[in-house]
Amino acid sequence: MEKATFAGGCFWCMVQPFDELPGILSITSGYTGGHVEDPVYEQVKTGETGHYEAVQIEFDPELFPYERLLSLFWVQIDPTDAGGQFQDRGDQYRTAIFYHTHRQKQLAEQSLEELASSGRFQKPIVTSVLPAVVFYPAEEEHQDFYKKEKKAYKEDRKQSGRDEFIEENWNA
């Protein structure tokens, strides 16, 4: 089993795309990359802890290769937005791939380079590829939010503009 950690803006929107796929064992919403130990949501959402909202995925690489995770990650985000994602603004909503192994680093950097040279986006790709650091699971109410709070999740996602961006830039 391996771990993959992705920051793609609001962590509520980053669980469902990976959930319930063969080889995905668990997905945890949480915080990583900051300077405050054991942060809580109220701290992170201020943007002052340095943390990213992220998901950590435990997966079986034999059933779901890391390359496939990367492909699925990219199409969930706007990789050209350095100020957050969609309606969620601030450093806590930046995008990043946090690698856990040298191989993950190589594959992440390669996928970023391929996207940057593809011509899909006019603006530069600003998603970072960073070493994995301590990951703090978010509070229970943030885990599997899209399942527990279906109505609130659907409304937030609808208002965010994420789905329109995906349709226009990735599904076109």
Automatic annotation (TrEMBL):
EC annotation from Swiss-Prot or TrEMBL = 1.8.4.11
Under the heading InterPro entries, the entry gives: Met_Sox_Rdtase_MsrA_dom, Met_Sox_Rdtase_MsrA_sf
> Which catalytic reaction applies to this protein?
[thioredoxin]-disulfide + L-methionine + H2O = L-methionine (S)-S-oxide + [thioredoxin]-dithiol; L-methionyl-[protein] + [thioredoxin]-disulfide + H2O = L-methionyl-(S)-S-oxide-[protein] + [thioredoxin]-dithiol
Q: Membrane-spanning regions, if any?
A: none
Annotated Peptide methionine sulphoxide reductase MsrA domain residues: 3-154
Q: What class of enzyme is it?
A: oxidoreductase
Q: Which residues form the active site?
A: C10
What Gene3D superfamilies does the database record attribute to this sequence?
Answer: Peptide methionine sulphoxide reductase MsrA (3.30.1060.10)
Q: Please indicate which superkingdom the organism of origin belongs to.
A: Bacteria
Keyword match Oxidoreductase = yes
Annotated GO molecular function terms are: peptide-methionine (S)-S-oxide reductase activity
Q: Which UniProt keyword terms apply here?
A: Oxidoreductase
| Family named by the database record | Belongs to the MsrA Met sulfoxide reductase family.
Q: What function is annotated for this protein?
A: Has an important function as a repair enzyme for proteins that have been inactivated by oxidation. Catalyzes the reversible oxidation-reduction of methionine sulfoxide in proteins to methionine.
Q: What is this protein called?
A: Peptide methionine sulfoxide reductase MsrA
Species this protein is from = Alkalicoccobacillus murimartini
